[in-house]
Amino acid sequence: MGLKQSRLANSFIKKVINVKKNNIETRLADAREELAGLKKFPDPEFVGIIRELGFRCELCARCCTKDFNDHVFLLDADLAVLREINPDFISPAPYYEFCDQKGRFYVSGYALKTNPDGSCVFLKNKRCKIYENRPSICRVYPYMLHQEADDSGKVDWRQISGLNEHGCYNSELEDSECEAIARETRVYEEAYLTHMIGFFETVEAHFRKNHLKHVQSIYDRKMREFLKGECGLEVFVYCKGKFEKQKLRPKSEI
Ligand code: SF4
Hints:
Order of helices and strands: EHHHEHEEEEEEHEEHHEE
Bound molecules: iron/sulfur cluster
Number of helices: 7
Strand order of the largest sheet: 4-5-11-12
């Protein structure tokens, strides 16, 4: 298997979901299956791909912009650090997963906000202002090890984001460096999938207990009204095994 690239890092932007398959059970089963596959992915192959790429960052900072990577998703450990730094720079991650029949949304976590020009709120003069404390995904980027569909819809393992769109390639990397990158990327991807499995399990239990269900037509209508500024939103954000309720004001009131 050669190297596979993703245009967008899946850990930054969640998979584009086929709406027909957007039910909790399917998403939970997919995440569990992917985690099992990740654990079985051969380490020598992953290390070999990293060596073959020979990627070196050229400090272009494109990866810190919405245009390139949509959003920075925060794991619980990241959230704790970022809340200490500046809680105002965090918001519910976009692309909420579910909406119940009462019009309340459910999302798998928080993300960093961006500036009006689409750059990360922590980017200044092409440098990260919180480099030592940057979120997990920023530490492993552009490496990844997860399954994603390509433009033709074929799902396969992807190991690099934005191939040939940033950085330079074919550099000589030490074996120890490749092994460390592979190790850290695996740790991140396992943590991300474990987080997502926790989210799907929690939302499934919450829906069952409260006789709720995901209704796509209500999701679409509420989102349309919100985007037009006609209403606010109630969003339940998954965090540390529970939901935090957030109220988003109508855009017309911001
Ligand atoms: S936190 Fe730092 S490294 Fe991560 S996207 Fe923002 S500026 Fe870039």
